[in-house]
Amino acid sequence: MGVDQIVVTGQAQAIILGIETSCDETAAALVTRDESGRGAIRSNVVRSQLDEHAAFGGVVPELAARSHVEWLDHIIAQATDEAGMDLADVDAVAATAGPGLIGGVLVGLTTAKALAASLGKPLIAVNHLEGHALTARLTDGVEFPYLMLLVSGGHSQFVLVRGVGQYERWGGTIDDALGEAFDKVAKLLSLGHPGGPAVERVARDGDPRRFRFPRPLLREARLDFSFSGLKTAVRLQAEALAPLSDQDVADIAAGFQAAVTEIVATRSRQALERFGQVLPGVQPQLVVAGGVAANRAIAAALDRVAQDMGAPLVVPPIALCTDNGAMVAWAGAERLALGDMSSLSVAARPRWPLDDPDMGVNQHGV
Ligand code: KG4
Ligand code: ZN
Asked: pTM for this structure?
C-alpha cells in the first residue's frame, strides 16, 4: 500500500478509480494522469486473501468471490480516504473485466458499473493483462514500444507492446505458468503457499548442481514456455529421495530455480533478438511484470541478459508487479485519454488474450 506524492502542475488531470478482483487480491486505487501523460498513484490498497486460501494449498474460486463481495466496498472507501478524495472527484471508474476467476471478476466489474452509473462517470473495462503491460509507463514513464515479460501465477508470456491496445503476443506457456510451477514445486516439497518466495528462500542454502533438471522446449526456437515436464522431474526426484532431509529440499529447490532461471533468461535473450528483427533500429527495452519478478535469481539473470543486449530493463516496484488496483486505474487512465470507454453492458470474460482483436476498444500507438 503506497502513496506517491505528485507535483501538482496546474494542468488538467484525470482521476481514475481502479478496481481489481480477478484472483485473490481485493484491490482499489486512485491514480491521476495529467495532460502530458504523467501518472501518479494517490492511493493503492491491496487486501490479499492468502490466509483464507492457505489451508487449501491454492486459490479456491468460490471463497475468493465471496471474500471480494465482503471486502471490496471497504477497500474502495480506504482508497478514497488515503487519497484524500471523494468518489465524486473521480473522472472514470476502471475495473478488471477479465481474464481471471469469473466470480471475482463479476464482483469487481458489477461494483464498477454501479459506481459509474450512480456517479454519472464513464466505465472502463480493463483487460487485467493490459494493466500489467502498461504499469511501467506509470512507474517509469517508459515509452512505446517495449517487450514485456509477464511471469505471474496465472501467466507466462512475452508481449510486444507497441501502444495502448497494440499488443503482439510472442509466446506463452503451453502448460503451467511460471509462478504456478513454483507453487506446485513448493507444495510437493511441503513448503506452503504461495510457493515462489518459499522456494527462493530454501534454494539459497541448496546446491543447484546436485540435480540437473530438464529445460523443456529450450532447444526449440519458439518463444514458448513449458514447465510441467520440469515439475514432474522434480516430483520424481523428490519421491526417489523420500524422506527428504532439509538439505535435499534445499538442493531440489535450488536445482529447480536454476532450471527456470536459465529458461527465462534464454527465452528473454531470444525475444530481444526478435525485437531487433521486427523493429530494426529501435532501442529494445525489456519490462518485467508479475509476481515472479520478485525472484532475485531470475531478476539478476534478466539484468545480465538486458545488459548483454543493450536493452534497458525496467522492473516496477514489486507491489506494482503483483496484482493491484493502480495498474487497473492506470490502464483506465490511458484508455480514457484516448476516448476509449466501455458500455455498461460490457461482459466479464474468464479468458481474454491480450492480442484478442476484440479488445472492445480502439488501437493506438506506434
Ligand atoms: O502476479 P501475482 O501476484 O499474481 C498473479 O498470479 O496474478 O503472482 C503470484 C505468483 C505466485 O505464483 C508466486 O508463487 C509467485 O508469483 N512468486 C514468486 C516469488 N514471489 C512470488 N515466484 C518465484 N520467486 C519469488 N520470490
Ligand atoms: Zn496479474
From this structure: 0.92
